[in-house]
Amino acid sequence: MELYARVRQAVLVEGRGRRAVAREFGLARKTVGKMPEYVLPPGYQRKKPVRRPKLGPWQGVIDEILVDDKQRPSKQRHTAKRIYERLRAEYEYTGGYTIVKDCMRQSRIGGQEMSERSEGSAQSQFSSDHASSVEMRRKKSV
Asked: Which residue from 45, 55, 65, 115 has the least number of CB within 10 angstroms?
């Protein structure tokens, strides 16, 4: 992000040539040419949703299992591996495990579990605790 701002400053404010800026920052000239067009980097977005033709007929089954799992305690819920095994055994699924895992992750993130992770999550608490402990160690060692 900082590099993006510095390149934009060099080209737009300072009026330097794009070739010279590309050489200075070690970027392609095409990349430097695109940077002044956007205030922020545009990022990547898919034009179409991901197609999963092998999983299509079983998508409803997976959603049904996940809905049933909401009523169960967290330790009794299905993992992606267990759902994959059930699909193979009960429904004659011929696709791969990774597709099931990705579909399950998408369903959970798109549905309800993002709210559970957003505020005060263990990960954010860990990272702030970890950062403060690292900082304390640095102060002691100096």
From this structure: 45
Q: Are residues 109 and 67 in the same domain?
A: yes
Q: How far apart are CA 91 and CA 133, in angstroms?
A: 51
Structural domain count of the chain: 2
* Alpha-helical regions (H) of the chain: 2-8, 18-25, 29-34, 59-69, 80-91, 97-110, 113-118, 122-141
Distance of CA 21 to the CA centre of its chain: 31
139 in any annotated domain? no
Q: Are 70 and 107 in contact (CB under 8 A)?
A: no
Give me the domain span that covers residue 108.
Answer: 56-116
Element (H, E) at 51: none
Contact in structure between 65 and 25 (CB atoms under 8 Å): no
123 backbone dihedrals φ, ψ, rounded to 5°? -65, -45
Residues 6+ apart with CB under 8 A from 79: none
Confidence of residue 113 (pLDDT cuts 50, 70, 90): very low
Model confidence pTM above 0.85: no
* Owner of token pair 């002044």: 36
**DSSP label at 77?**
S
From 131, 81, 80, select the one nearest 107 (Cα to Cα): 80
